[in-house]
């Protein structure tokens, strides 16, 4: 039986809203201010965390798994004036990892948000440990990510022992051109690890590439004066340029997910990037599977799902796309071919 788009997205959004009001109440008035369409990137983030920990937990070599949240926020994302919330990426990472990360590092430069995040994580680990498993070490760092990331990588190398595999998953949720290219260079090509990056293609990049080329160039790690940027298809070109830059840093296996605010409206790209290993990996298939759902919906669909969950609307049948048989068949094929990734079927 195929997986229905309506059911898939609604179930994932239910997971994002679960416990969110409880966490918000721990530090009222402190929340990330996001639109409802941020739920789509959080669904992808959740699947990535689940996939990453499922796969690497099966490899005894990797004893030192890090989660790095470079723009961590407050732990809760508020999306309307009535304080309706999603869980933020730090809590999602603690909740959806199939095995705990050994070390989790959260970087947030806003002091109020950093304090709120620390309190919410303490509450999660101490009061809700059945859902949120505490890692061996975790820290909220109230710093600029561009300065914190080099120190994080130095600390990783200092603790590294040759017989303990070192690997990381780093989530970079850029709202503007926040984490600049020198920080990406610190993360790549070594230590080994995977990146999930929010590339603000339409707004921060698309609106500034002509006006502030030096600023955009710093974000990309190149001199844009030497790049022939087309007038038509500029945003797609800038996305591909960033993908090429990541490939040059030995992250050539990439899946790009386009997240839309509305049909034909502004958007951003969620980029998953990892290494190319000898026998390949199942990461790419899993992210593509989730991508195919996310790219069928937009913020208006999310709003309607939230109304259903809130009880103000009874059915989604007339709104979201019907089940895509191709997606369902692809998932069936992948789970048959790779039985070691049983947990990934949940996504």
How would you summarize what this structure contains?
By secondary structure, the protein is an alpha/beta fold.
Counted beta strands: 10
With helices defined by DSSP (H or I, 4 residues minimum), what is the helix count? 13
CATH architecture: 3-Layer(aba) Sandwich
Number of domains: 1
H and E order:
HHEHEEEHEHEHEHEHHHEEHHH
Kindly report the oligomeric state of this protein. single chain
Q: How would you state the average pLDDT, rounded?
A: 85
* Main structural class: alpha/beta
As a percent range, the share of helical residues equals: 40-55%
Shape: globular
The CATH topology is Rossmann fold
Distance separating the two termini: 15 Å
Regions with little confidence, pLDDT below 50 for 5+ residues: 312-346
CATH class: Alpha Beta
Largest beta sheet: strand ordering:
6-5-2-7-8-10-9
Main sheet properties: 7 strands, mixed
Region (Disordered): 317-347
Protein name: Three-Cys-motif partner protein TcmP
Biased composition (Acidic residues): 321-339
InterPro entries: Tcm_partner (IPR031009)
Structure description:
The protein is of the alpha/beta class and 347 residues long. The protein has one domain (5-309): 3-Layer(aba) Sandwich (Rossmann fold). 44% of the residues lie in helices and 16% in strands. It is built from 13 helices and 10 strands. It has helices spanning 5-17, 20-26, 38-57, 89-96, 111-127, 145-159, 181-187, 201-205, 213-220, 234-248, 283-294, 299-310, 325-337; strands at 32-33, 64-69, 76-78, 85-87, 103-107, 137-141, 166-172, 193-199, 253-260, 267-274. The strands form 2 sheets. A 7-stranded mixed beta sheet has the order 6-5-2-7-8-10-9, sandwiched between helices. It is globular, with a radius of gyration of 20 Å. Residues 312-346 have low confidence and may be disordered.
